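Ticket #4471: structure output looks truncated?

Reporter: J.K.
Steps to reproduce: submitted the chain below (306 residues) through the standard prediction queue, then opened the result file.
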Amino acid sequence: MSESVIVTAAITGNVHTPSMTPYLPITPQQIADEALRSYEAGAAIAHVHVRQPDTGKPVHDVELVGEVLAKIKSRCNMIVCVSTGSMDASVERRLASVRAYGMELASYNAGSMNFGLFPGASRSEPYKFEWERPYLEASEDTVFPNTFKTLREYAAAFREQGTKPELEVYDLGMISNIAFLLQNGHLQRPPHIQFVLGILGGAPANLDNLLFFYNTARAAIGDFTWSVCAAGRFQMPICTGALLMGGHCRVGLEDAIFLERGVMAKSNAEQVAKIVRIAKELGREPATPDEARQILGLKGLDKVRY
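Returned output as attached by the reporter:
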């Protein structure tokens, strides 16, 4: 078991809407401020999506991403992992920030799936913005596309930029996809995998699945570094399981808007502080950004373009 644990803060995501919580960061300044608070609480990585500053709607906007990146870098040396996930953007748009800024780390979704947000539509009324209900309801009839062709294209773009892919695994078949891509030279070893549990359309969030996914990946892939995140009330239990197994973990308002039962999280930093406290009780210390760079084999902050 590694003594250091890499804690990632998923700052805002594209799952929750402003009507679900008043604490969701929306503007570039709010996202950067939340990243800094998370860094101060013990997070080494900020996982970043951006939103329209006036409405909070998730977007793939290179300029907004650049603004967030510059604000974070001016205040701390956090690793920033930009998202390439989208159910409606083109491959070019999803990869635009990786290519523009030469990221150290970026998400790489390892297969297609149903990604259901629609059950939240009826629980979020009244809505602050007109886009929220249609956005959530649309996921009932939308596929999150990550075909073998686009997986190959993503891998090529990441290699060109020296960007480490964070391989997001939502279901068991995605482990086979990663093994195939490694065997055919599209991905480089050792890979870094993030198991994502509890999304409607993916694997349920429980410790049996976490252990099964880990063992399956170890048999199919060999050596890899890994982290886990889990949706909603499963966030802290599943992340604690990862700590016990020697893995790394992700918390944040992208994945859960509550700190504990009935208590809404007022910031990402509250969730980071909680998992750091649990980690320390288990004899594991939060890795610094530079320690995390070494563990993951990243190219370094001096080689990005922001």
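Triage note (M.O.): checked the attachment and the full token line is present. The two ends are 34 Å apart (CA to CA).
Status: closed, working as intended.
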